[in-house]
Amino acid sequence: MTPSPTPYDRLGGEAGVRRLVERFYALMDELPEAYTVRQIHPESLAGSAASLFKYLSGWFGGPPLYTAEKGHPRLRMRHLPYRVGPVERDEWMLCMRQALAETVDDAPLRAALEKAFADMAEHMVNTAGEACAGAAPATLL
């Protein structure tokens, strides 16, 4: 009996995950509607993209690159130094939804990933306030 393919496999492995991450961060730079969430990231998104790629690789069922390098993700703890409110959550999801739409042809997979990302984004919210721009930029994840 052959095991079901993982999301990592269904995305096309390393190349598919990289394509998703690269498009996501390109959108964060391109979309004026993502201004607030972009401000809590460093000027260069390279480190953030590398971390997200490593995290998603393992989260999607591929090589556990992030945990091998940094241990348990503890995503909420790692994001606590940065004020993440509803505006940042929604802007992050705007970029992720569009990146998924542009890079994932498999509609059921895309819908499942969008739901999982929405749940994750909601979990990262640590303030109920308005936009939290002005927080110190950092490498998330």
Structure commentary:
α7 packs antiparallel against α8 (107-124). The chain has helices spanning 7-11, 13-30, 35-39, 46-59, 65-70, 75-79, 86-103, 107-124. Mean pLDDT is 89; it is low at 131-141. It contains 8 helices and no strands. By secondary structure, the chain is mainly alpha-helical. It has one domain (12-124): Globins (Globin-like), CATH 1.10.490.10. Keywords: Heme, Iron, Metal-binding, Transport. It holds the Pfam family Bac_globin. This is Group II truncated hemoglobin. Belongs to the truncated hemoglobin family. Group II subfamily.
List the helices and strands and how they pair.
Layout: H1 7-11, H2 13-30, H3 35-39, H4 46-59, H5 65-70, H6 75-79, H7 86-103, H8 107-124
Helix pairs in contact: 2-4, 2-7, 7-8
Specify the CATH class.
Mainly Alpha
Low-confidence stretches: 131-141
Radius of gyration: 15 Å
CATH superfamily membership, which one?
Globins
Assigned CATH architecture:
Orthogonal Bundle
The total of helices stands at 8
CATH fold topology: Globin-like
Can you summarize this structure?
This protein has 141 residues and is mainly alpha-helical.
Please describe the structure with a list of short key phrases separated by commas or semicolons:
141 residues; Globin-like; mainly alpha; single chain
